Amino acid sequence: VQLQASGGGLVQAGDSLRLSCVASGRTISSYGMGWFRQAPGKEREFVAAISRSGITTYYRDSVKGRFTISRDNAKNTVYLQMKSLKAEDTAVYFCAADGSEWLPKSSREYDYWGQGTQVTVSS
């Protein structure tokens, strides 16, 4: 499956952005989907994940209440709605797909990755 992330940009602190991840090649209904991010000089970190059905979601603590992950399997698309953005949210954001029955938070568990979209939040 190929993943294409988009929606990043330069915003001010407190603004909102919605990232999209469009899949092609296979339907994402068979995959748990995740969003990760990587800031310069730092390791890639888990942001959010959503189960195949969309019923179960996980978030890293620092984005809880501000970010919402969702999916539209009919459109083969996963979203990350980000509100109340902070400077520390600045990173390249990646979407990923996991074909296992679990919904992992480790990047090592994910099978497919998109190319990333830059989010820059100015303070």
Question: Secondary-structure blueprint of this entry?
Answer:
Blueprint: E1 2-6, E2 9-12, E3 17-24, E4 32-38, E5 45-50, E6 57-59, E7 67-72, E8 77-82, E9 91-98, E10 112-113, E11 117-122
What's the order of the H and E elements?
Answer: EEEEEEEEEEE
SS strand fraction: over 45%
User: Which consecutive residue ranges, at least 5 long each, have pLDDT under 50?
Assistant: none
Q: Quick one: how many beta strands?
A: 11
Mean pLDDT: 96
Rg estimate, integer Å? 13 Å
Number of helices: 0
Helix content: under 10%
| Structural class designation | mainly beta
Profile the largest sheet: 7 strands, mixed
Morphology call: globular
End-to-end distance: 37 Å
Would you mind describing this structure in some detail?
A hairpin with a 4-residue loop joins β7 and β8. The chain is 0% helix and 50% strand. The chain contains no helices and eleven strands. The chain starts with a strand and ends with a strand. It is an all-beta fold and 123 residues long. The strands form two sheets. Strands 2, 4, 5, 6, 9, 10 and 11 form a seven-stranded mixed sheet that branches. The mean pLDDT is 96.
